[in-house]
Amino acid sequence: MALWQTIILAIVEGLTEFLPISSTGHMIIVSSLLGISQFEFTGVFITSIQFGAILSVVFLYWRRFIQSFDFYLKLFVGFLPFGIMGFLLKDVIDVLLKDVTVVAVSLVIGGFILLFIDKYFDRAPDTDQQPTFKQAFFIGLFQCFALIPGVSRAAATMVGGLTQGFNRKSSAEFSFLLAVPTMFVITAYQMLKSYETIKPEDLKMLAIGNVIAFFVAIAAIKFFVNFLTRYGFRAFGIYRIIVGVGILVLLAMGYDVNLV
Asked: TM segments (predicted)?
């Protein structure tokens, strides 16, 4: 992987990880367009630079991580459904991750959901809302939908928060926080599975990618919270539909954008 490809993928990761547009879907599509989707290290890189995005959440919300032990228990309860389902379906997920068609269809379906989600749920008061253990678990169940590439972990958990009576801001912030254990486990698993195949030059690319993803994700989170609070999810729904339909059109025209 060349340095310029590393930089592009890291920027895409930082921009999309916490937005409801599917970072995994975008990484799959971009890596395919860059012509590097067939390399084993590309898959390792796509997963591992999520660590930089994790650190951006810890950096921005560090006070939440020192408030109480209950906070960690709620994150664990929220992560548990995803962890169990991910372990049971890991072979199926590996297959789906190689299919851009799945990503495109998921983007479109999720886009239509986001178009109407603001109208379906009454807007809760703009106060800081913290989940109960039951609410954290239900949001965790919604996170399981993100095992399908293109669904978006952020979108699934934010919608889950809205179903529990959260306002947009609180739904987004708990989604960010729940990403920390979720993405840490995914990254750790990927590194453990692939460490024997990683070369010294690959470590350099991983370091650069994580640093870039960290700073870009900080900017993306700040932008997203402000935008979502004011305008809602509709714009992201439109974007998802445009990207998803665009990919499906390319596939229908015979362009091979699937991962090898």
From this structure: 6-29, 41-65, 71-89, 96-117, 174-192, 204-225, 237-255
